[in-house]
Each structure stands twice: as C-alpha cells, then as structure tokens.
Amino acid sequence: MEHADVGRRILEARMTKGLNQTQLAQALGIDRPALVRIEKGERRVTALELLDIAGELGRRVEWFLTPRASAIVRHRGTDPEDLAAVRPIDVEFETLSGDVALLEELGRLQLDDRPTVLARPGTSAEAEELGLRIRALAGVEDGPVSDLVGVGQRLGLSAFSLDLGRVDADAASMVQGGHGIALINGSSAVGVGRRRLALAHELAHFMVDDQYQTDFRVDARAEADRHENRMDRAARAVLLPEEALRSAWEEARGFGLRGAAVRTGSRFRVDMTTLAGRLGELGLVDGAESDAVREVRTRRADIVELNLHVPHDLEGTSLPPAFTRAVIGAYDAGHHHRACARAHEGPLRRRRLRPQARARPGCPVGRRVVTWVVDTGPLSHFAKAGWLGVLKMLAPEHRIMIPDVVDAELGRGAAQQPGLSSSPV
User: Fold this and answer.
1) Element (H, E) at 322
2) CA atoms of 338 and 328, how far apart (whole Å)
3) Phi/psi at 100 (nearest 5 deg)?
4) Pick the residue with more confidence: 87 or 133?
5) What percent of the residues of the chain are helix, what percent strand, and what percent coil, each to the nearest 5?
6) Total Cβ atoms within 10 A of residue 418
7) CA separation for the pair 80, 191 (Å, rounded)
C-alpha cells in the first residue's frame, strides 16, 4: 500500500474511535501538523509510530496495511461523516473478513460456494417462497431447524458470533467471492431466538446477493424498509415453515394461548416476537392474540415442568469448525511467520523493530514472537471465549505446541480443572 492509503486508514480508525486530530497527536506525542500530513499521505509514518497509532486506536498493525474489501467500501463510503458512523460490529466484521481471506490465501481454509443466487423478493408471497427455497437448497426437512449454523455452512455462509453488547447491531453479513460471512451479536442481552432470527435474516440477504448488510434490529416492523421486511418474512419462513407450524400450533392450543406459545417457541427455538409475527402473518391468531403472544415470557418453572431444551446457539464467541481447523492448521504449518511478515510489507517493509521497542500484537520483538494466531488474528476470537474453550474446540487429531504466551493461562485453568493439561495437546 502507498503512504496515502495508510494515511486514509489512520483517518478512518481515528474517526471510528471518535478522536480529533489534536487528541490523537497528543496521545502519540507528535505535533498535530505531523499527523495531518500522515493522514494526507504527505509524510511517511515510521514503524514505531504506526505501532503507537495501532495501540491508541485499538487496531492491528496489519489492518492499516491491508486494503478494505470492495463490498465494505461500497457500504461505508469514504466521507469523514460516513467513517464516524461506523459501528463496533463493522470494525469486528472487517477484522474477521480479513482473517478469513488470509486463511484462504494460505490455502488452509476452503469454504463451500453458494449453490445459486436466488431472486430478490418483490412481494410477501415471494419472500415466503424464498424461505422455502433456502430450506430446500440446504436439504432441510419439514420441521424445526436445529442446526441453523450448519444450514448456512451448506449454502456457503459461515456464521460467527461475538459478544458486542446490548446496544450494537444484531448482525452483519458480506458476500466474499462465491461464499459469505455473517457475524451475529452473541450478547446474552440478545436472546437466542433473536440471534437465530438474525442469522436466518443474514442468510436470506446472502442468498439474494446483498453484498454487505448491517442489521441493527431484525424484525423491527415499524422501522424496516420493504426489502428488510421481506428478508424478515423469508427468515421466519426458514425457521417456522407454514405446514409444520400449523400442525404444532393446533396440537398445542389445548394448553391455552400462553402454554401453546411456550411449547411452540421452544420447539422451533424462536423468540416470542418472531413467533407472534409468524402466527399473525399465517392467520393462526388474530391481532389481540398476536400481541398477547408477544408479551409471553418463558419462566424457569416452564423449563422444569415441561422439560424444555434451553438452546445456546451463537452465544458469546462461536466459530465455524472449518475456521477453527484452518487456524490450527496454519499455526501448525508455521504460517504465523508469513502472516506477521505481511504486516511489514508496503511502507514498513525495510524497517526492523528494535529489541527495546514495545511489543505489539503480531510483531516480533527480539527473540520473542507473539504470533498473529494467538494475539491478533483468528485466535483473538478464541481468547474471548477463554483458552480452555480453545482446547475443547480442537479436534483430537490436532497436536500443537501451546505458545508461551498462552501456557500461563492454560496452567491456571488446568489447576482449576485437573482433567486438562497445559502441556502440548
């Protein structure tokens, strides 16, 4: 990348962080005019300056040296006002898409391509048909979808989740080559039914080739535009197919409206807002009953009395198995050295970090290398789930040497859980 490209990336990260030039310059210990020239591409940024900038703005060094995907450019634009409006989910999603692209470049990750592109629905009936086509293409039989992540994977959409907090968007998705990536807000404040609806919604976007989407509240009836309404309708058709829902609802009606809602919602793993909307659009309840279903809350007593299954789909940090295997395979093959080297291409390719420089993720300092797969790349998502969670996700046939930077964490966890060891797995 040229100096001007790096400067634009610094500008973007600064605007996203909500800092003005004076604030960032003071934090870096440089003059504001120097920062202005860096952002305009008129002054070369040194390696150590970029390390400090990355730390202040909460980004990986590699991010400043990697061009944005074209779909992201089209979605965000390039004006400062557009950059200032970027949400945390967009930042995480761009990092994630870069991780996927790098693993593909290294030949460690092979994702299934989308089997076909479906027509954008122009009516509610066409949205209903879209949901049925998605189920048919994924080979889902009539009834509840127990493995929605697997359905997306078969159709070429890899689903990830991260805890982004209550106030951020529900989901984002992007078409990347012949396949796609979806990031779901795994916050516990976003119930499992809403998370599943969000993934089904992004799957519908993906199948009609919507290049980049950020959805702040799926199923927000009064706020969504017509296309979003149709994507919601398709998502509900994926999760609650008409014939199966009619049968289940008629079977459960003998337990009263509330009892029927609790049983049916649990069976199909949807939240009450989704269930109420679906029952209403299929004419199975009237307006007053739909509103009543929307207010139903499943209680702990219901779970115990009815022996209900409590799902945890897409909660917290979750990763597709293929992605997990690719990360471990890349580390096993020593590709972390290549990934780290990539962070020094372009304007920094001739500069070496001095041993006394502060360690930053993904960059070697002296003899110690903090690898991208541990601190800055795909395994940073593992870290958010806890290192013991990493071990549980690894296939038994994978044998890796645990880096020193992780070993202490594993040691502490193993002390609490004697069945686990911090030795090579």
Assistant:
1) helix 321-332
2) 15
3) -65, -45
4) 133
5) 55, 5, 40
6) 7
7) 34
- Is the pLDDT confidence value at 341 over 70? no
Q: How far apart are CA 13 and CA 139, in angstroms?
A: 42
Counting Cα atoms < 13 Å in the Cβ hemisphere of 144 gives 15
Q: What b/e sequence results for 29-61 when a residue is b if at least 16 CB atoms lie within 10 Å of its CB, and e otherwise?
A: eeeeebbebbbebebebebebbbbbbebbebbb
Which residues share a beta bridge with 182?
A: 159, 173
Q: Which residues pair with 179 in a beta bridge?
A: 176
Copy the structure tokens of residue 284: 């199975």
Return d(Cα 140, Cα 147) in angstroms, integer.
Answer: 10
- For residue 107, what are its two tokens? 């030949």
| 157-213 tens-digit pLDDT | 999 998 888 766 788 898 888 899 999 999 888 889 999 999 999 999 999 999 877
H helix or E strand, kind and range, residue 175: strand 171-176
**Cα dihedral 92, 97, 100, 102 sign:** negative
- Helices 192-207 & 124-137 angle (0-180, nearest 10): 90
Sole residue written with tokens 């070496």: 352
pLDDT band at 334 (very low <50, low <70, confident <90, very high): low
Are the beta carbons of 2 and 65 closer than 8 angstroms? Answer: no
Q: Which amino acid is at 3?
A: H
Give the separation between CA 300 and CA 107, rounded to whole angstroms: 47
What are the beta bridge partners of residue 212?
174
pLDDT, tens digit (0-9, with 9 covering 90-100), for 204-232: 999 999 987 766 555 554 444 789 999 99
- The count of residues in the chain is 425
pTM exceeding 0.85? no
Say how far apart CA 400 and CA 410 lie, in whole Å.
Answer: 14
